[in-house]
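Thread: "does anyone have the structure for this chain?"

Original post by V.I.:
We have the sequence but no experimental structure in hand. Need at least a predicted one for the grant figures.
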Amino acid sequence: MGAVLQEGQQINVPNLEKEEIKKVDETYGYYKVLPKEGFYRLKLKLGLTQEELEALNPELKETGLKVGMILKTPQGNTNLAGVVNASYDGTSSDLKMKIKDYGTKHIAVMLPFRLNRVEFDTTADTKKKY
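Reply from O.Q.:
Generated one for you, tokens below.
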């Protein structure tokens, strides 16, 4: 086939099916895989082993973990450190009322020692050296 279509030339255009929309099952919880998360990190966060995750998500066996992938997890999973279900009821609170320690505080400020000897690394200095 040339770079330009000729008059009367037939082309085959495949019929692409629409992407299948998965229904949300309310009996399960869901977790979105973050960058640099592997099965070990998910085990710490979710408390589920790789085998348990693969049993709930069969596509994991074929494709492996990918960033942004939505994983099905058991509904009663309370180890989700990254998921927060907070609701705002419209009321505000004054934090001044919650202060209990009115004692004197001691604060120290750390300044660089011998600042005139510190070598600043910049891209311009690097270009000069090499």
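V.I.: this helps a lot. The chain has four helices and two strands.
O.Q.: and Confidence is low (pLDDT under 50) at residues 78-86.
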